[in-house]
Design a protein that fits this description.
Blueprint (H helix, E strand, L loop, with lengths): L2 E6 L2 E7 L12 H5 L2 H4 L18 E4 L2 E4 L2 H16 L5 E5 L5 H14 L5 E2 L8 H6 L5 H6 L2 E5 L3 H4 L1 H13 L3 E6 L11 E4 L5 H10 L10 H11 L6 E5 L8 H14 L4 E4 L6 H6 L6 E2 L3 E2 L8 H10 L4 E5 L3 H4 L3 H10 L1 E6 L11 E4 L8 E4 L4 E5 L12 H11 L9 H12 L4 H5 L6 E2 L37 H18 L27 E6 L7 H4 L13 E3 L1 H7 L6 E5 L4 E8 L7 E5 L11 H4 L8 E6 L1
Parallel strand pairs: 5-6, 5-14, 7-8, 7-10, 8-9, 10-11, 14-15, 15-16, 20-24, 21-23
Antiparallel strand pairs: 1-2, 3-4, 3-16, 12-13, 17-18, 18-19, 20-25, 21-24, 22-23, 22-25
């Protein structure tokens, strides 16, 4: 998505959506527009355990407390801890990186694999999908999804997870009368415009996918044969022209269920294309830079290697099999579903954190290295469709915070090694020269809508700014958008596209992406039988959650909801309760009291609970209800 960022006196003042025809049409979600305070609006906040606090100096733990030190001492301490852990097999791993630029992610990948010799790296927090599987899928662009005669969604509520994609698909359905076939896991704002909505309960997505591909309705699914036949008619025999939008709608369900569904759909509809809907910041760029098990920079894949994902690392830390954890941005405790497991892992581990913000996780940190955050750094990022665009620093990072490229490079020097990455520009050049992945060419030419990775058929186009459409923008240079205004030579676009295409074609041959037959994810899943006296749980995402940006933005904190259990009217009637009534909810690790909400978007026999919320007493109770080791989570409700 293109945005124009304005600043004054080294303070961010406004973010505006820029009209990018293939991506966002000038739209910008309210969360993106009004969370500027999270970056530079909390100078008075000094408690490092709060998300609103900016980390402005390196810190090390001395006598049980974090104290400020110079960069030299902090880097030396971090290197000592990492060197000790790396001396034992599988002793160190990395979680995070989705909030970095591509250049920052590339630098850390070089450090982790090249210096620490570890394959345990994961930019996701256990709430995503197998990156190699997604890499192997035939890709669709956002524009192609919005133009498709039929689009099939296997995601959470897109209005909550990816609002701009939701608006594009809603516009396609309402104005262009294209078909939306929704596999409905819970409440969804797309349902009102969907041609067909098929309810899917936890543990059934792969069965629904098999039914769509084969035409035979499995016993016990929550829709009728006639609805299946209509869905198959809209998709067609091969799926030609159809786009499947795939994500992780339920983080209380094992990713294996959705991965199996995605593989079945890819095999069953060979002419269809896929748009992965991972919701976390620049997670696609981080994965493309190799921050995931078996991944290589430049969207490459190495089946010969193996590494622990985020949850496996946490389990290994608790078991003592892994000694040290390097966290790249983000608050681990605020991002994982199983907070109890994460807490035990942090208590057992040596922890080095590279972050621009505070958070509860820093209570366990042994070394903290302050990093620049968005709007404070230059580089490139990659969106959900694989479009690489440039970002420009608008303000100077506070205190002695450094860009991630500098931190990774200096930490490597402590090991007596050089990453060969002296600047963001050199890093971008190294990315493109070694992998063919667009980076320095995008960074040097900020006047286009970005470059689609692996899509030579999608040529970049110039992006002019209309001052009338975006009031307050008087000069492209004022908002850091280079020469996007004024006349341009159209031939330059063709030259740039031709140059990038030839570079990518010649270089990416050595960076081989995953193919479906190489990937092990999605080859089947064993789902336990549902308990007739229990409800299957869907833990869904909300736009206004308890993430760091929201907690550090006073203007938006009032929009964060409380924990509530959404139920179909059938289940409400069966229990004899109504909206607002408080019930006893028993899960994997305990019992809590929560209010219920009538929501017929929730399939019968299921309960929907939002992630990133607290109950009325201010407690995060999901850890008591969700069993992270089970394929599905089930709870029992009783009246009080």
């Amino acid at each position: 998505m293109w945005v124009a960022v304005q600043s004054s006196g080294n303070r961010l003042t406004r973010v505006l959506g820029v009209d990018s025809e293939p991506v966002n049409h000038g739209w910008l979600c309210d969360k993106g527009r009004f969370t500027l305070d999270a970056i530079d609006g909390n100078q008075e906040s000094l408690d490092v355990l709060k998300d609103s606090t900016r980390i402005t100096e390196p810190m090390v733990r001395r006598h049980g407390a974090l104290v400020g030190v110079g960069w030299g001492e902090a880097l030396a301490e971090a290197a000592t801890l990492l060197r000790e852990a790396a001396s034992s097999p599988d002793g160190v791993g990395v979680i995070g990186g989705a909030a970095l630029t591509n250049e920052g992610a590339f630098a850390w990948e070089r450090f982790v694999r090249g210096v620490l010799h570890s394959e345990h790296v994961d930019a996701q927090y256990g709430d995503g999908l197998d990156a190699a599987l997604l890499q192997s899928l035939p890709k669709a662009s956002i524009d192609e999804a919005a133009r498709a005669t039929t689009v099939v969604t296997l995601t959470g509520d897109l209005r909550e997870e990816l609002p701009i994609l939701f608006l594009r698909l809603r516009e396609s359905a309402v104005q262009k009368h294209n078909n939306v076939v929704e596999l409905s896991f819970g409440a969804s704002a797309l349902r009102s415009v969907a041609r067909l909505s098929l309810p899917v309960r936890p543990g059934e997505a792969h069965l629904v996918a098999r039914a769509l591909a084969g035409g035979v309705l499995a016993k016990g699914l929550a829709f009728a044969q006639g609805e299946l036949d209509e869905a198959r008619r809209l998709i067609g025999e091969t799926g030609e022209g159809v786009v499947f939008v795939v994500g992780r709608p339920n983080v209380a369900e094992s990713a294996q269920v959705m991965e199996s569904a995605i593989r079945l759909l890819c095999e069953g509809f060979p002419a269809a294309t896929f748009l992965p809907a991972l919701r976390r910041s620049n997670v696609n760029g981080a994965l493309d830079m190799g921050l995931g098990p078996q991944l290589l920079p430049g969207r490459g894949f190495d089946a010969r290697t193996s590494g622990r994902d985020a949850r496996a690392q946490l389990q290994a830390l608790v078991a003592g099999e892994q000694k040290t954890l390097l966290l790249l941005g983000g608050d681990l405790l605020g991002n994982v579903l199983d907070k109890d497991l994460a807490t035990k892992a942090l208590e057992a581990a040596t922890v080095i954190v590279v972050t621009g913000h505070g958070g509860a996780t820093l209570a366990f940190a042994d070394v903290v290295l302050p990093a620049a955050v968005q709007h404070e750094r230059n580089g490139t990022v990659t969106n959900i469709e694989g479009r690489v665009t440039s970002v420009t620093a608008k303000i100077v990072q506070p205190g002695s915070a450094w860009p991630d490229v500098a931190i990774a490079s200096e930490l490597a020097e402590e090991f007596g090694q050089s990453l060969g990455l002296a600047s963001v520009e050199e890093t971008a050049k190294a990315i493109e020269e070694t992998t063919g992945y667009p980076a320095i060419s995008v960074l040097n030419d900020g006047s286009c809508d970005g470059v689609m990775v692996g899509r030579d058929d999608v040529a970049p186009s110039r992006l002019p700014l209309d001052p009338m459409a975006f009031p307050g923008i008087r000069s492209a240079y004022t908002v850091g958008l280079a020469s996007r205004t004024g006349s341009t030579e159209e031939t330059e676009v063709g030259v740039m596209a031709s140059t990038m295409a030839s570079t990518m074609a010649s270089t990416m041959a050595s960076t081989k992406p995953a193919s479906l037959h190489e990937v092990t994810a999605g080859r089947g899943v064993d789902v336990p039988l549902a308990d007739a006296y229990s409800l299957r749980v869907n833990v869904s995402r909300r736009l206004y959650d308890r993430g760091g940006a929201m907690l550090a933005s006073p203007a938006l904190q009032g929009l964060i909801g409380t924990t509530i259990v959404g139920l179909n009217h059938f289940d409400l009637d069966r229990l004899g309760v109504a909206t607002g009534d408080v019930v006893s909810v028993t899960g994997a690790r305990g019992t809590v009291s929560l209010p219920v909400l009538h929501n017929d978007g929730v399939p019968r026999g299921c309960a929907e609970i939002p992630f990133g919320t607290l109950d009325a007493s201010g407690e995060n109770v999901l850890g008591l209800l969700v069993d992270g080791d089970s394929v599905i989570t089930q709870i029992r409700l009783e009246t009080l």
